[in-house]
Amino acid sequence: MTKDDRSERFEDQLAKLEGIVARLEDDSVGLEEALDLFEEGMKLARACRVRLEAVEQRVEKLLEDAGEGEPATEPLDPDTAP
């Protein structure tokens, strides 16, 4: 993750990623542009995943410190999340 990835808000990164997905779904995007967009999207997705994992670790640590040494969370199943 670069310094720029860390300084940009997660929500802004996610919005950019959603915009890239929308552009890739557009039939008028040429092959080279689609490849560039895909590459940028993969970088953003990776950066978002790393940030989410870091936040999850912080939350689990906070819950562990507040409890009796056991985290009070269960792994998140993205398929059942609201």
Mean pLDDT: 84
What is the CA–CA distance across the termini?
A: 28 Å
Largest sheet: none
Return Rg in Å: 17 Å
Q: Give, in order, the helices and strands.
A: HHH
Describe what you observe in this structure:
By secondary structure, the protein is mostly helical. The chain has one domain: Helix Hairpins. The chain is 68% helix and 0% strand. Helix 2 (10-24) runs antiparallel to helix 3. The longest helix has 36 residues, at 31-66.
Topology (SSEs and partners):
Elements: H1 3-7, H2 10-24, H3 31-66
Question: Could you give a quick summary of the protein structure above?
Answer:
With 82 residues, this protein is mainly α. It has helices at residues 3-7, 10-24, 31-66. It has a single domain (3-66), classed as Helix Hairpins.
Highlighted features:
3 helices, mainly alpha, 82 residues, Helix Hairpins, 68% helix, elongated
